[in-house]
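[recover] target loaded
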């Protein structure tokens, strides 16, 4: 089992749009089919405009395979990232 903690930093004011897209587009597309999501976190003080999310995969090889499959899905690339303004 491996864990991957991702940190994304956004321009001021863009975090709410990302959270909305993650909730309404990203999570429904991914489900738990491309790694297991253990949570999303933001801060109220300190490092603002950041989000952290934690994923787990059975192995590094499985992570590579699942990420490759996810990257080939046009719905995620077309509907989520361009709207974030990262």
């Amino acid at each position: 089992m491996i864990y991957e903690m991702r940190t994304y930093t956004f321009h001021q004011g863009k975090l709410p749009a990302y959270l909305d897209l993650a909730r309404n587009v990203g999570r429904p597309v991914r489900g738990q089919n491309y790694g297991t999501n253990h949570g999303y976190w933001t801060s109220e003080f300190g490092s603002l405009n950041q989000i952290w999310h934690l994923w787990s995969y059975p192995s590094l090889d499985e992570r590579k395979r699942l990420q490759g499959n996810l990257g080939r899905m046009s719905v995620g690339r077309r509907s989520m990232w361009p709207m974030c303004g990262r």
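[recover] notes: The longest strand covers residues 2-9.
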